[in-house]
Amino acid sequence: MQPRSLIAIVLLLGVVGLLGGLVRPAVADRPIQAERAVRVATKPLEPFVFKQDDRWAGFSIDLWEKIAQQLGWKYEWVEVKSVSDQLAAVQNGSTDVAMAGISITPDREAVVDFSHPYFNAGLQIMVPAGGDHSLPNMLRAVITPALLRLLGIGLLVTLVMSHLIWLIERDANPEFPRSYLPGVLEGLWYTIGSMGGNFVDEQPVTVVRKMVQMAWVVIGIILIAQFTASITSALTVQQLSGSINGPGDLPGKRIATIRGSTAAKYL
Considering the entire predicted model, what is its pTM? Predict the structure, then answer.
């Protein structure tokens, strides 16, 4: 499968690692004055921040309101579009703090102070519900080491049976080729034709050949059943799990993420 032709997936990593809900400048640089309204930068990020009946709501909003109540602060909300805008607003002094699900990273800690984290987030990967059903991906799921071993065993047993039939029939059956290559090919034809119980037109002549062929029918049915079960199980697993099961499966894939987010830096 060519990497550029693989399915596009959406990687959501807006809140990775430990989330710090409250961001403010370094305390020594610009302390918050309690006698004026504290300007709080926020943005929608459910379930932490969202609007309900034209009012801000959510876990982070409730937390901030409790903090402001205990400290006796007045405050006003300043809506921005992204986490980058929140951090920039705190850095340039247009707001005093930023409140939402903001991931804590070393680069951000170098320029702003975070509160204690209150939510442990992680990497979330979104893929199509049905998985990738392209032919190359299905072949990759089906052709497994177990299937290759089964095919190798089946081929070896088939060749052994072809030689055995040639050795039995070359003297007892005048119509059977006596030389090696034509005889083995004829035996291969009988072997493949009788696999699974589908006998060829010419019936066995000797008793030994009949016993060998009956044994081969049983072996052939078992091999076919194993082969079918192996393919079916591989396709079932591929249907349920898909080709992307974690971050380790992302290399070589086409990925969509949010520009400037922690996810983009992670990728």
Answer: 0.45
